[in-house]
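Our platform keeps sequence and structure together, in a single record for each protein. Such a record has a labelled line for the sequence and another for the backbone structure tokens. Nothing more is needed to write down the fold, since each code stands for a local backbone conformation. For reference, a complete record is included directly beneath this paragraph:
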Amino acid sequence: MSSATQPLPYLIIDFDSTFTQVEGLDELADIALQHHPEREKIVGQIRSLTDRGMSGELNFSESLKQRLALLEARREHLPLLVAQLKTKVSDSIVRNRSFFERFRGRIYIVSSGFREFIEPVVADFGIDSDHVLANTFTYDTGGQITGFDADNVLTRDGGKIEQLRQLDLAGDVYVLGDGYTDYQMREAGLANRFYAFTENVARAAVVAQADEVIPSFDEFLYQNKLPMTLSYPKNRISVLLLENPDARAAELFRQEGYQVESVPGGLDEDELVERIAGVSILGIRSKTQVTPRVLEAANRLIAVGAFCIGTNQIDLVSCMKKGVAVFNAPFSNTRSVVELALGEIIVLARRIPDKNPKMHLGEWDKSARGSFEIRGKKLGIVGYGNIGSQLSVVAEAIGMQVLYYDIAEKLQLGNAVKCRTLQELLQQADVVTLHVDGRAENKNLIGAEEFAHMKPGAIFLNLSRGHIVDISALADAVRSGHLGGASIDVFPYEPKTNHETFESELRGLPNVLLTPHIGGSTAEAQRNIAEFVPERIMGYVNTGNTQQSVNLPNIQLPVQQAHRLIHLHANVPGVLASINNVLADHQVNILGQYLKTNEHIGYVITDIDKEYAPEVIGALRKVEHTIKFRVLY
């Protein structure tokens, strides 16, 4: 994007733990002491000395002397160190390589580290050797590192202050670093601003003195309106994760550079309204409700991730009209639910819920009464989607006859037989299992009338949604002996945390299995979900892809060619024409354009050349009926 030329301040950037993710001497110790019997102990001592020197706890020259004395490094170790450091340049520095190449004359690397390993690393970013100010090693005749050049001002306490004074730069000077010695240049009045760089390490004593704390170089460029590789700093994207999704979800979001907050349980509407302001991405499971009132308070929300299959807890239409993408995990826990259902069928057929507690009380009740094999029995599956169809295959493999009912036309698998009505299925099945979605029309899908249609002694399972079943009617059917057993994993009301008491009419009933909504709660399923949902959300944030979104028009976009304009708007005539008129009026070249609509909204993605006037963005934001607009590059 074109922008007015403005003088760039001189940037004084630290090397260790700022330009790179690590401390150079710490990495050199790892290499030099590779075969030393006390390697871990010595490396730990060196790292401790580094931290004490960087935080200001130990004077720098003393810290440096003590570290070098422990090193036992040689000249031939340095090429290995350089190769390693080149793989450990800070992510946000790597992303913005073009900035360093473009403004190389305004950037100085001022470090108390050593020129021998700093120069070749920063040279890859266009920074010349005369803009690297650092220490140098001294060696003995055999190539052993013996110390440092004591005449270099950077070996002394206050060395960076003296070095910057000698540079005598004319103009504004900004310092970026992670150590106390970096802040001292600002304290001495030689720099206009000090930015504490915390992408790799945050030292409390340094952060406390900073003019600004920057979690990434992207943030520095964004604050100062300087050219950057990303359209928006990732550290400004805030993620709120509720209801304990697998830790892998938070890990992936943090690796992407997002700020992540986790809350163990669910939140009610009032609590979520209180917490949602400023949140960019909300992650929930089945308990938390995303209502219009929540969305009204969500001033920065981009996407909602449902770390489960169902999305009935989310007002999908309201999210759509607010331009909030919703993603779920429709396949990730399918196998886990199927295995639990099959296990429960077998356990109930053998009346284990009755036998097990008696054994724990010392009562030996060896009897075949009411127990049966499931081979040859008829399994009625209500809802033949991902879970129902896979259960069909597994159940048939162990000898069950499968019937199914679904309001949508589905391809039957194996020898499964489709029933034309729910009543037809209920009247034939020995075991009935529910695997339907949570739409409002399914409330009390199974009640007293449906239980009456079932065969005497039949077994009933619900692993779908709690409101699908009339719990009182189910309890009556069990108490009366009409049903031979039941297993329920989902309930109309479920405790928000593990500390809340679970209340239900089904407690204490014979041959009834009650589980706390754990159908998908296996290590494998939760890990799969925790990878699937963040990957879809990050794909949407980074590229605009809406493939597998449950509420936005689905578009799988090609690789981004230049700058990408993301435009969500109300589905009314003329919006696309208005967008293209703005681009035409500003002579912007379109490289590619993609459009998909549904009954409520339209989604337009336009790839354009990088060169365009800044006012184009403002004009596009003002296009009538715009819901949400953003630029990606």
